[in-house]
Amino acid sequence: MDLNFSLKKYFLFIFFISIFSLLSAIYIEFALNQKPCKLCLYQRVPYIIAIFICFLGFASEKKINWLYFLATIFILSSFLSGYHVGIENNIFSEFSGCSNANIDLIDKTDIIKSLNNNLPSCKEINFRIFGFSLATINLFISIFISLYTVKLIKNEKNRSN
């Protein structure tokens, strides 16, 4: 089987996983009215970047270079979602951006505006699928994509030598 063809299929697969993940998060946020915390919003960024990497990797002649980028993005995504899962399970403490403390506000209108724009704490798990938080599901997906992409890179390197 032509490796370029299988890598093209892999880039398409990750492209669709990324699109599906983002659309699911948007659906849960807007249709099911579940506000995401800041870390949930940050965890969408690797999927957005992956869409562009997959598009470029699909079209490129040097697909291995884009596999390196894809592996890096999902390794970082694994750390980010792992940190979020750790916060949810009280392994790590929340970073200051996760809490809703607005002690610097003095003006009444600013306080009211701030309360309307409040995001949930990163510790709160408001939505579960099969008993898993979305951060946990993201951790599983990110680790799987990272490991499989690294395996593809190793196979490509062995094939080249």
Structure overview:
- By secondary structure, the protein is an all-alpha fold.
- The chain has a single domain, classed as DsbB-like (Bromodomain-like), CATH 1.20.1550.10.
- The protein is built from six helices and two strands.
- The protein has a two-stranded antiparallel ribbon with strand order 1-2.
- A hairpin with a 2-residue loop joins β1 and β2.
- α4 runs antiparallel to α6.
- The chain is elongated, with a radius of gyration of 19 Å.
Provide the descriptors you would attach to this structure in a database record.
161 residues, Bromodomain-like
Lay out the secondary structure.
Layout: H1 3-30, H2 38-42, H3 45-59, H4 63-88, H5 108-116, E1 128-129, E2 132-133, H6 134-160
Antiparallel strand pairs: 1-2
Helix pairs in contact: 1-3, 3-4, 4-6
Give a quick precis of the structure.
This protein has 161 residues and is an all-alpha fold. It contains 6 helices and 2 strands. It has a two-stranded antiparallel ribbon.
Quaternary assembly: single chain
- The CA-CA distance between the termini, in Å, is 18 Å
As laid out across the biggest beta sheet, the strand order is 1-2
Structure annotation, total helices: 6
* Share of helical residues: 55-70%
How many β strands by DSSP? 2
Radius of gyration, in angstroms, nearest whole number: 19 Å
Note the main sheet.
2 strands, antiparallel
Classify the fold: give the CATH topology. Answer: Bromodomain-like
Give the name of the CATH superfamily. DsbB-like
Main CATH class:
Mainly Alpha
Pick out the low-confidence regions: none
Shape: elongated
Give the class from helix and strand content and strand pairing: mainly alpha
**Series of secondary-structure elements, N-terminal to C-terminal:** HHHHHEEH
Number of domains: 1
Portion in beta strands: under 5%
CATH architecture: Up-down Bundle
